[in-house]
Amino acid sequence: MKHDHGGGEQPPFSYPVKVGHVSANAVTVRLEADPREREGLAKLWRVVSVGSLKAELQIARWKKDGVRLKGRVEADIVQSCVVTLEPVESRIDEEFEQIFVPEGSKLARVIANDTAEMVLDPEGPDLPETFSGDTIDAGAVVAEFAALAIDPYPRKPGVEFADHLEGDADEKSGRPNPFAVLKDWKKD
Asked: Is residue 111 part of a domain?
């Protein structure tokens, strides 16, 4: 996962994990965003506010030198209704799993068949993400999976877009035609 937070600054929610300290036995980690982090996430996600963000994840070694993060993220957010712009409260409760391997690892390569076509199973597991250095940011992974669960078009319950029909060009609607002023215009 490549994260761009502008100018190399830290992501709003971060929990660095040293790859060398990860064991084969899964370790459970509980993360919770503080008020400053929630404010930063609200700006990043372009929502009104983030009331809470919690995650419980298991961190374990995967194969020889990879790392597997698996867990659940829960968040309470407030967005603006796309119809009325009134606040809409949303609850996020998502399970996630992400595997990381070092850059250059054979495990991160896309499998190709004899005709050099990429073989991707849309229902299968995601390809492993690569990392460089000795640290993975588990907080950024949690924030990304929460962001993917945000409703892009939130609406207050019972609110619908009103039907809007364009008028017939020949119909007299009582409104002046904005192009009527051009009828007498002539090009010299």
From this structure: no
Q: Of 91, 92, 90, 93, whose CA–CA distance to 155 is shortest? A: 90
Q: Which two tokens stand for residue 74?
A: 């829960």
Per-residue pLDDT tens over the stretch 57-85: 999 999 888 999 999 999 999 999 998 89
Distance, in Å, from the CA atom of 130 to the CA atom of 105, rounded to the nearest integer, reads 8
Whether residue 146 is contained in a domain is answered as: yes
Torsion angles phi and psi, residue 146, rounded to 5: -65, -45
CA distance to 88, 124, 145, 172, 180, per residue, from 79 (Å):
5, 32, 17, 41, 43
The count of structural domains within the chain is: 1
d(CA 45, CA 92): 13
Per residue in 89-137, pLDDT tens?
Answer: 999 999 999 999 988 776 666 555 666 566 666 776 677 888 888 999 9
Query: Domain range holding 29?
Result: 16-102+128-165
What predicted TM-score, i.e. pTM, was given to this entire model? 0.74
DSSP string of 52-111, one letter each residue: EEEEEEEEEEETTTEEEEEEEEEEEEEEE-TTT--EEEEEEEEEEEEEEEETT-GGGSPP
* Residues 21, 30: Cα–Cα separation, whole Å: 17
